[in-house]
């Protein structure tokens, strides 16, 4: 048994290549190998090429974890998200990854299936084991206001899309402002009131959009129709649209996202309600495809790239300066007027 195991141990030993091995093969010092592997200047090009050739020949891989410990940072940002099904979360994640890469940082993603204390704590534990410098949490559910949820205080944390308020550093789209301009646009066209196709009840973004819709109508002294809920999907928008089509007094609808607006447009078309001649529709997000809807959709533009950039800037500032700054930074929205809105019939 011992004789059979010896060659196996020898093969394993031969696969472990040290910096000293590279230095010997390249005919340089271990310090020079270290400088090359860390990308430092001051090494002439011929020597650098010799070292890189030796690394390739021997199969040497620099110990990035050891280098990170020496520098005091891993140059990696962890991202915890509770949903990858919503357009907002996916585009925010993409923007964070792009902005992090521009700063020389990688992103480690950890989706969490259920928004519970155990799941969140476990996610932070796993991210710490994966060696990250900070954590960005993309919130899509009512979580931080739950008494049982406490994010670890010993890591730099930034929250996206949350009502965390002064307890955390928060970056968010101006959900309320965007909803206001959508409803005010429809009222300015002469519609007596505006119906609302809202997102799910457990979404902070959906709640803020619904609250703003209600506030604008109340301030204008208009009747507030019954709120209809979807789940962000086009299918839920279609089902809601079949219901809204039965209300002959419905001449304007503000949908909480573009995907639900797409389903709504289909349902209204099937029921013979013309958009915008009979019913005006406004969405929220400004998906790249929204300009190709039939008709092209009037919608609220969210600047996901700016949200991602500000997230990365804020979390790097916290890391580098150990700033205890809290509060919310809102990224402005703007209304993109296309062909799905017009004055009501008879105006």
Helix content: 40-55%
Coarse morphology:
elongated
Rounded average pLDDT: 84
Tell me the series of helices and strands, N- to C-terminal: HHHHHEHEHEEEHEHEHEHEEHEE
Count up the helices: 12
Percent of residues in beta strands?
15-25%
User: Number of DSSP strands?
Assistant: 12
First-residue to last-residue Cα separation: 94 Å
Low-confidence stretches: 6-14
**Major beta sheet, strand line-up:** 2-1-3-4-5-11
Helix/strand-derived category reads alpha/beta
Relevant terms:
6-stranded parallel beta sheet; alpha/beta; 6-stranded mixed beta sheet; elongated; 347 residues
Walk me through what this model shows:
This protein is α/β, with parallel strands linked by helices and 347 residues long. It contains twelve helices and twelve strands. The protein has a six-stranded parallel sheet, with helices on both faces. Strands 7-6-8-9-10-12 form a six-stranded mixed sheet, with helices on both faces. The longest helix has 18 residues, at 304-321. The termini are far apart. The model is unreliable at 6-14 (pLDDT under 50).
Question: Can you describe this structure in just a few lines?
Answer:
By secondary structure, the chain is of the alpha/beta class. The protein contains twelve helices and twelve strands. The longest helix has 18 residues, at 304-321.
List the helices and strands and how they pair.
Blueprint: H1 2-14, H2 19-26, H3 30-37, H4 45-58, H5 64-71, E1 76-81, H6 87-102, E2 106-111, H7 117-129, E3 134-138, E4 157-160, E5 169-173, H8 175-188, E6 195-198, H9 204-219, E7 228-229, H10 234-244, E8 252-255, H11 258-270, E9 280-285, E10 298-301, H12 304-321, E11 327-331, E12 334-336
Parallel strand pairs: 1-2, 1-3, 3-4, 4-5, 5-11, 6-7, 6-8, 8-9, 9-10
Antiparallel strand pairs: 10-12
């Amino acid at each position: 048994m011992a004789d059979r195991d010896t060659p196996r141990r020898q093969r394993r030993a031969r696969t472990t290549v040290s910096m000293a091995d590279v230095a010997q093969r390249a005919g340089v010092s271990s310090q020079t190998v270290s400088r090359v592997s860390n990308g430092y200047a001051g090494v002439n090009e011929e020597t650098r090429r010799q070292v890189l050739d030796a690394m390739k020949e021997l199969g040497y891989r620099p110990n990035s974890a050891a280098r990170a410990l020496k520098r005091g940072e891993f140059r990696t940002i962890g991202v915890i998200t509770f949903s990858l099904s919503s357009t907002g979360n996916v585009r925010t994640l993409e923007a964070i990854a792009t902005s992090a890469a521009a700063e020389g940082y990688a992103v480690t993603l950890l989706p969490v299936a259920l928004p519970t204390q155990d799941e969140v704590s476990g996610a932070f534990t796993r991210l710490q084991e994966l060696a990250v410098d900070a954590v960005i949490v993309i919130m899509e559910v009512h979580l931080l206001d739950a008494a049982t949820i406490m994010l670890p205080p010993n890591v730099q944390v930034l929250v996206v899309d949350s009502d965390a308020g002064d307890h955390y550093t928060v970056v968010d789209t101006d959900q309320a402002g965007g909803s206001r301009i959508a409803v005010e646009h429809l009222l300015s066209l002469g519609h007596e009131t505006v119906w609302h196709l809202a997102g799910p009840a457990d979404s902070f973004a959906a709640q803020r959009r619904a609250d703003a819709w209600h506030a604008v109508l109340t301030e204008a002294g208009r009747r507030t129709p019954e709120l209809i809920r979807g789940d962000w999907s086009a299918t839920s928008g279609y089902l809601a649209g079949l219901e809204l089509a039965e209300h002959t007094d419905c001449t304007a609808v503000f949908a909480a996202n573009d995907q639900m607006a797409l389903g709504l447009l289909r349902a209204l078309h099937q029921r013979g309600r013309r958009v915008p001649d009979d019913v005006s529709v406004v969405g929220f997000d400004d998906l790249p495809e929204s300009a190709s809807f039939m008709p092209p959709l009037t919608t609220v533009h969210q600047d996901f790239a700016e949200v991602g950039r500000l997230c990365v800037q804020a979390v790097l500032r916290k890391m580098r300066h150990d700033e205890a700054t809290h509060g919310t930074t809102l990224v402005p929205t703007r209304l993109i007027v296309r062909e799905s809105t017009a004055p009501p019939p008879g105006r």
